[in-house]
Write a structure and sequence with these properties.
The chain is an alpha+beta fold. The protein is built from 15 helices and twelve strands. The chain has a five-stranded antiparallel β-sheet, sandwiched between helices. It is globular and about 60 Å long. The protein binds 5-S-methyl-5-thio-alpha-D-ribofuranose (SR1) and magnesium ion.
Length: about 425
């Protein structure tokens, strides 16, 4: 139920709302009647307006239902509260890597924030085969900074429990992930869709595939039980805006205290989906330097994240877990240093499992990705999707067989080779 005083705004409503808001008026300049306002939301959940005067702002307002599906699927407005809180926390630990918030209105479930221009959504850039040399590195740094600093490796138990409490009631958005990522793709669910009839066979196989279903449920168990750090919760390439030189992570409305590997796996999955979408469209399956670049960036996501996370752990061991005072002799310092690598290896394999789930859900579940959806010819799309599905299954079932990220990208290349198609 929307709270008293909530109303979804149209263009005129946005104009009056911002005109009564000094912080927005100052940024926009001009008379309100001269502001140019357009609704540009193309995500699954919310309204998004770009408002331009002399300056510009973005207004994001939650709807009381899932926009993609309609009013039959109600969704709490409180996601706007979780998003604004996550953005504040992320800005504290990863300054300059998120949009700046100018105003948050809890009652209207509305955030006024920085208009990122000339940024575009990373997914769209990757679909156009654009090179963003810094994007993967910056996303990896964002993950290391936000995930390390909101974990008990950096903070007290008391602070961590306060964080858990702040985000604990983001249950409706977590439930979307629990159902859409970990469960529905492996069963008959009303809103599932896939390229049919081409993928009918593999969809039916996945529904019968007990090892695969068990592995997906293990990942779901981790997702709901591992309160490790404040995760973004929906870190795909549609949640990143880029220019050649700037990268910002947006849209953390799915944030809660969950497994670190979920964010890492999500972004790796989306770079790999881009890779398979391009490989599937290649006529002859011959060499493709853009696909090689995508795999190189996939490697960067992990290697930069791992190095930065370890560096933070070595330099700021301020948390109550692996507490500094326990490891002061040279032997125990060395033991802790060795253990950090064991810890990262587990995180890596967990991330691969999550990546597998995230790839499968985008092909067999409700919410698909434009990388694949934009492929008009269903046979070509099915070819790309099948390569991605088979590879994702391997990620989920054989995460332990990958000793490093270069193994993963080599296997992706192998799955996309003409002999396999
Ligand atoms: C019903 S919402 C579907 C998806 O959109 C969001 O971007 C999340 O990824 C969610 O799973
Ligand atoms: Mg989103």
């Amino acid at each position: 139920m929307p709270s008293a005083g909530y109303a979804p705004l149209d263009i005129n409503g946005i104009r009056s709302y911002l005109n009564a808001l000094p912080v927005a008026r100052d940024r926009l300049g001009q008379e309100a009647s001269a502001w140019r306002i357009r609704e540009v939301g193309d995500g699954n959940l919310n309204l998004v307006f770009i408002v331009e005067g002399k300056g510009a702002v973005v207004v994001k307002q939650a709807l009381p239902y899932v926009r993609l599906v309609g009013e039959s699927w109600p969704l709490p407005l409180k996601r706007s509260f979780f998003e604004s809180n996550a953005l504040f926390i992320q800005e504290r630990y990863a300054p300059g890597l998120t949009p700046q918030i100018y105003h948050f209105d809890d009652r209207m479930a509305l955030i006024v924030m920085e208009y990122l221009s000339p940024h575009i959504i990373l997914r769209k850039g990757l679909m156009q085969r654009k090179i963003y040399p810094k994007a993967a590195t910056t996303i990896a740094q964002f993950m290391a900074l936000t995930l390390y600093n909101t974990s008990m490796l950096a903070s007290s138990a008391e602070a961590h429990k306060a964080r858990i409490e702040l985000f604990a009631s983001n249950t409706a958005l977590c439930k979307i992930t629990e159902d859409l990522v970990f469960t529905d793709p492996y069963r008959e669910a009303a809103l599932n869709r896939w390229t049919s009839p081409q993928l009918d066979g593999i969809k039916a196989e996945f529904e019968r595939d007990n090892p695969l279903k068990l592995a997906a449920q293990e990942k779901k168990w981790q997702f709901v039980t591992e309160a490790q750090a404040l995760i973004h919760g929906d870190l795909h390439t549609g949640s990143v805006m880029v220019t050649d030189s700037d990268t910002r992570v947006i849209d953390p409305e799915f944030a809660f205290v969950g497994p670190i590997a979920f964010d890492v796996g999500a972004i790796i999955a989306n770079y790999l989906l881009s890779f398979f979408s391009h490989r599937g469209q290649s006529q002859d399956g011959g060499p493709d330097s853009y696909c090689d670049w995508l795999l190189g960036q996939t490697e960067m996501l992990w290697t930069v994240f791992e190095a930065q996370f370890l560096k933070l752990w070595e330099q700021q061991p301020s948390g109550e877990v692996f507490a500094q005072g326990l490891f002061e002799t040279p032997e125990s310092t060395a033991a802790l240093a060795a253990h950090r690598h064991v810890f990262m290896q587990k995180l890596f394999r967990d991330a691969l499992g999550f990546a597998g789930c995230k790839m499968i859900r985008r092909i067999l579940g409700l919410a698909h990705v434009q990388d694949m959806e934009s492929i008009k010819d269903p046979d070509v799309r099915a070819r790309a999707e099948t390569m991605a599905l088979i590879f994702a299954r391997q990620l989920l079932l054989q995460a332990h067989g990958f000793s490093g990220i270069a193994d993963v990208t080599a296997a992706a290349q192998e799955h996309a080779s003409p002999a396999k198609v």
